[in-house]
Amino acid sequence: MKRYHLLLLLLLFSCKNAPHQGSRYGMVTGLRPEKVDEYKSLHAKVWPGVLKTIEACNIHNYSIYLKKIDDRWYLFSYFEYTGKDFNGDMEKMKKDSITRQWWKVTAPCQLPLPDAAAKGDTWSGMEEVFHVE
User: Fold this and answer.
1) Span 49-72, pLDDT tens digits
2) Which domains does the chain have, with CATH numbers?
């Protein structure tokens, strides 16, 4: 019985200290119709400093998809987080001067959804409802 309690304590401790490790994220935002080509062009040549920061913040398999629905354009992003301190890594990203400059270039292209706009954010989080490996 003691082994069971020790295993349970270890499991609870590891989950508490690494809640975001190995997590997948889906996000969505709108895109201004007149900025579609500009946004695609920017992302065809993402600045090396931005890519370096993404990697340094433990984000991997990052993709952005474009979809037109009922005459409105939307961006869907997907990434995997492999670090141990998601909030800390996101703060590190927010403080990176090159990334902040990149966001100043890309932000005018985007149309945040109402929930994100209300919080001053660009991207809205999405709930994962299915995953298979």
Assistant:
1) 999 999 999 999 999 999 999 999
2) 21-124 (3.30.70.100)
Closest CA to 53 of 21, 14, 113, 95: 95
Give the DSSP H/E element, type plus range, for residue 100. Answer: helix 97-106
Q: What angle do CA 127, 131, 16 make, to 5 degrees?
A: 65
Measure CA 57 to chain center: 11
Give the long-range contacts of residues 122-127, CB within 8 A, separation 24 or more: 122/29, 123/27, 123/28, 123/29, 123/77, 124/27, 124/28, 124/29, 125/25, 125/26, 125/27, 126/25, 126/26, 126/27, 126/28
Instruction: Estimate the crossing angle of helix 48-56 against helix 97-106, to 10 degrees.
Output: 120
3-state helix, strand, coil in the chain (%, to 5): 50, 25, 25
Amino acid at 126: M
Report pLDDT digits (tens) over 8-57.
333 333 333 444 557 999 999 999 999 999 999 999 999 999 999 999 99
Does the global pTM surpass 0.70?
yes
